[in-house]
């Protein structure tokens, strides 16, 4: 397995780490490579075959792919690819555990492929190399045209890495409504959470965001937000987004939040269409524990989803506990972690793009120009 090396340079008394010092080095040469391909996109069949052939024949790698990808009818009919296909190791999501045997992940597609790759590893995540072959590509900095050169560089090591933090999320059921009412009214000591007495029904690692919304109900969502056991506020509106810095450029950005560089240790809380003019998105320190429950006087239930998946209903007596995971996603940079992020802002979100003001022909005419 690879090691992420953090080189700390002493700059001042606070020992601030230079983000550019985050590098990938290999303790031993990578052997097992997981290739994730965007499903239901026929345009990716040829790139998928190309990179598998390159990894198996030229690099002598063990290549893992999903069984549904290997069983694709297009691949089955390709006799020329048959010898490569027979050498692929297959797995099924939810049935086969490959978390301990993968050295490198290669994603072919859009941002969704990286989110899916993250969901396959609920513990430590291997380095991820993402090629832009999808519709958006904010998280996929590599161009496929130069895949041989780029993959060879990564195998040699010493590549720049962005450590994308994830959220550790628990859904807890069967909490006594009276206990939640006491917490809401501040009748319990600070830091005390009776939700510990409930039953954990789901635990996930989330890369982008946790979204709590009103679902199909016509009523406003009404949920309580706790921070480290203390009631902070009630959210009345369409819902609330709890996102990582990586997720700050996704749904949270569409809801009016600021965009945070993935190296900033933080959690962002963004209301969705709040019924209050003064409810603005807030950023809290990484490591705090957030808890979301239905308010005791909520008229309807709420719904929660995790990176757009596993959507389920939240009722009175349920809570969602969220904190920073200790298992980030090491995303390999094409250039470096600063340049890649700003290039994605400009190319994908058209950040600060406007028509340039023309230069004055004569400086004496400056009084006649428009601002």
TrEMBL record:
Signal peptide: none annotated. The keyword Kinase applies. Keywords: Kinase, NAD, NADP, Transferase. Residues 1-17 have a biased composition (Basic and acidic residues). It comes from the Eukaryota. Its EC number is 2.7.1.23. GO terms for molecular function: NAD+ kinase activity. GO terms for biological process: NAD+ metabolic process; NADP+ biosynthetic process. It is an enzyme of class 2 (transferase). Pfam families: NAD_kinase (PF01513), NAD_kinase_C (PF20143). Residues 1-20 are annotated as: Disordered. PANTHER family: NAD KINASE (PTHR20275), NAD(+) KINASE (PTHR20275:SF29). This is NAD(+) kinase.
